[in-house]
Specification:
The chain is an alpha/beta fold and 172 residues long. Helices cover 38% and strands 9% of the residues. The chain has one domain: NADP-dependent oxidoreductase domain (TIM Barrel, Alpha-Beta Barrel), CATH 3.20.20.100. Strands 1-2-3-4 form a 4-stranded parallel β-sheet, covered by helices on one side. The protein is globular, with a radius of gyration of 17 Å. Bound molecules: NADP nicotinamide-adenine-dinucleotide phosphate. The site of NADP nicotinamide-adenine-dinucleotide phosphate has 25 residues, from helix 6. The site of NADP nicotinamide-adenine-dinucleotide phosphate (NAP) has 25 residues, from helix 6.
Length: 172
């Protein structure tokens, strides 16, 4: 990728699903450091340690599965059905999806949300007319954490990662 950038084939280098440990490894040898790390993040998987690390190193976090990827084969409804998020959504007159997206926006990360439905695309953009209160943010920060997509299919006795521990460097 460094060669590609030198040849003008890409403007910048990004990585995905990198733990703090993998970022540290790449930063120790990279001549051109990655500018972005795309990772799973939502109120049920807040990535506090990784966000602090990336902020310190000047790496932008881009969030995938900000709604917990409900309705997909790799996701679940644990985020969209969260009782606390439902209560906050009701109090704000917003949907749980909008609360999740607003929360991510207020954390200062880039957000990748996906919908095939035009109405939901509009709903997902309509998050700039409200704010989460310090109390709501505090309650969200206390939610039990559980990574929605452990990516077990990348673990194999014949591959480079023989356990989830190795795949995520013990960071899940
Ligand atoms: N780098 C990686 O390893 C990685 C991994 C996973 C995903 N991604 C990327 O991240 C993008 C977004 O993540 P994601 O698709 O995993 O999860 P997501 O955006 O959290 O959730 C998408 C799911 O939520 C539904 N949805 C969208 N808006 C909604 C709303 N307002 N209310 C209720 N449900 C809503 C969608 O259904 P409808 O389409 O029917 O609306 C879809 O089933 C994907 O497009 C993918 O490219 C990257």
């Amino acid at each position: 990728m460094e060669e590609c950038q030198k040849l003008g084939l890409t403007k910048s280098i990004g990585v995905s699903n990198f733990s703090c440990k993998k970022l540290q490894t790449i930063l120790s040898t990279a001549k051109i450091p990655p500018v972005v790390n795309q990772v799973e993040m939502n109120p049920m998987w807040q990535q506090k340690k990784l966000r602090e690390f990336c902020q310190e190193k000047g790496i932008i976090i881009t969030v995938y599965s900000p709604l917990g990827a409900n309705g997909t084969v790799w996701g679940s409804d644990q985020v969209i059905e969260c009782k606390l998020l439902k209560e906050i959504a009701q109090a704000k007159g917003k949907s749980v999806a909008q609360v999740c997206l607003r929360w991510a926006y207020e954390q200062g990360v880039c957000v990748l949300v996906k919908s095939f439905k035009e109405e939901r695309m509009k709903e997902n953009l309509d998050i700039f007319d409200f704010e989460l209160s310090p109390e709501e943010l505090h309650k969200i920060s206390l939610l039990p954490q559980h990574k929605g997509y452990p990516a077990l299919e990348f673990v194999s006795d014949d591959g480079p990662y023989k356990s989830l521990e190795e795949l995520w460097d013990g960071e899940i």
